[in-house]
Write a structure and sequence with these properties.
- The complex is a heterodimer.
- Chain A is of the alpha+beta class.
- In chain A, about 30% of the residues lie in helices and about 30% in strands.
- Chain A has a six-stranded antiparallel β-sheet with strand order 1-2-3-9-8-5. Chain A has a three-stranded antiparallel β-sheet with strand order 4-6-7.
- By secondary structure, chain B is an alpha+beta fold.
- Chain B folds into three domains: about 1-30 and about 90-180, Aminomethyltransferase beta-barrel domains (Alpha-Beta Plaits), CATH 3.30.70.1400; about 40-85 and about 185-275, Gyrase A, domain 2 (2-Layer Sandwich), CATH 3.30.1360.120; about 325-400, Aminomethyltransferase beta-barrel domains (Elongation Factor Tu (Ef-tu), domain 3, Beta Barrel).
- Chain B has a six-stranded mixed β-sheet with strand order 10-11-12-9-3-13. Chain B has a six-stranded antiparallel beta barrel with strand order 14-17-16-15-18-19. A five-stranded antiparallel β-sheet of chain B has the order 5-6-7-4-8, with helices on both faces.
- In chain B, strand 6 (about 130-140) and strand 7 (about 140-145) form a beta hairpin.
- In chain B, helix 4 (about 70-75) packs across helix 10 (about 265-275).
- The chains are: A alpha+beta, B alpha+beta.
- Chain B: InterPro entries: GcvT (IPR006223), GcvT/YgfZ/DmdA (IPR028896), GcvT/YgfZ_C (IPR029043), GcvT_C (IPR013977), GCVT_N (IPR006222), TrmE/GcvT-like (IPR027266).
Amino acid sequence: MQAILRQARASPLLRPQLASPRVFRASRLSRTLVTKRYTVEHEAVEFDDATGLGVVYITDHAQASLGDVVFVELPTVGTEVTKGDQIGAVESVKAASDIYAPVSGTIEEVNEGLADQPGLLNKSPEAQGWLCKIKLSEPAQMEKLLSEEAYKESWA
Amino acid sequence: MAIWRSCSLRASMALRKTAVHAPFRALATQPPSELKKTGLYDFHVSNGAKMVPFAGYSMPLAYGDVGQVASHNHVRTRVGLFDVGHMVQSIFRGPTATAFLEWLTPSSLSSLQPYSSTLSVLLNERGGIIDDTIITKHAEDAFYVVTNAGRRERDLSWFADRLAEWNAGESGAKGPVEMELLEDWGLLALQGPEAASYLQALTSFDLKTLTFGKSAFLPIEGFNLHVARGGYTGEDGFEISIPPSQTVEVAMLLSKAPVQLTGLGARDSLRLEAGMCLYGSDLDEDTTPVEGGLTWVIGKERKERGTFIGAEGVRAHLRDGPPRRRVGFVVEGAPARQGAKIFDPATKQLLGTITSGIPSPTLGQNIAMGYVLSGAGWQKKGAAVEIEVRGKMRAASVVGMPFVKPRYWRG
């Protein structure tokens, strides 16, 4: 949670979504819950049940393995995706890595900043280098994804 | 020269009987998963290398926290050191050595000056490229040949069979040729605009006289090493051949600041910017040098009359034009990598396939090389094509290679 709050300050793009946990902490009146889950493809989703939006990003481990990211291909806003669909790619000089939809839903927003600054993905994969936001059609899918511990075990 | 001879002769005493068979015996007893190591394996590990399997060897991909782009740029702007000791170094010696190698390759080796190198190709009976190689002539009867690690088995058995055939025939009667494998010798490539000033501080030899494509035995801090000016990056640089017992010491000598150890990752992006081929990706046994854009390695006087293996196939492509041709591309949007298909934008006809491609760190553009149908103008500079990347068509145009202008020392 601390980390999430730090990112909220760092990234104006995330403010609308992440303002709620701060409210939650301050007043305890909101029922908003932000959960974070991982996939074996080294992606993560941060899901806010108040907005129904999941922010998709690649993990710090993934960006470190990829090396300098020079190009990010993102899905089109409005596209309906099914969990497992290939929705884009992250390219370093070394290689191209596909991005898969970690959950089903509709692409609500993509991180336009990555077009000019793909390096954000290395500098700050979570806060500034996030890939897209998906409006989840089946929020229960979050439960099937990996916890942080299980994710780390998947590649360690 | 004297030192080379004495070293290699000493080695050959032990190797002569086994030179040709040893590698296969080794392969037979080794499980395929077991990777070989160059003499610098421990040196790499102690320098923070990330080791990866490459051509049967465990080789450094990158060192420490230095990213591929930073490593690449360091070689373009300053100087980097590469371990290329996995490559196969050998000596061909004998009264008919020139004629023998002119049978195996389409190069003009009789007119090559002593202590000069040339890029060449070993051709199969159809004119397809078995491997690309650098051949250095020391004398009419002595050549130093470097071939690819990934083709070791194929090349060595090809050499062994052709040598046996040659020495049993008329030519061999005039004087046999023997091949000596410089097994476990080191090979280091010092590359970049500051390579010459760095090396000059370690030798009394005036490097200004050693121009691109030349080689010499250089006294380097008490060692006497074969140094060839050239490399695989497009930058000025040197390839230094080192006896097994001296490799680690020489590597330490050549890796002080500003030299940065450089791995396979940067090696690939540097060679691709320089328009150079990677055997197995850009060249194979179904590709003639004419298709591969390597017609220039064929000696002028050998194009019409040369009696080299595969001459008929090569000559047919020279005469009628090759059915396809390797060309360079600049690709809009996403980088096109190996396997991406190339199409005619108007008819969507398949024109060919990309064999190597990267986002170029130097140019900030996506560059690629691949093969297109030849004869309808697709191989010409400026031809507009489409390349499919992850299901999307990306605009691309044919450009000349090298992508980045080489900066060789030509005196």
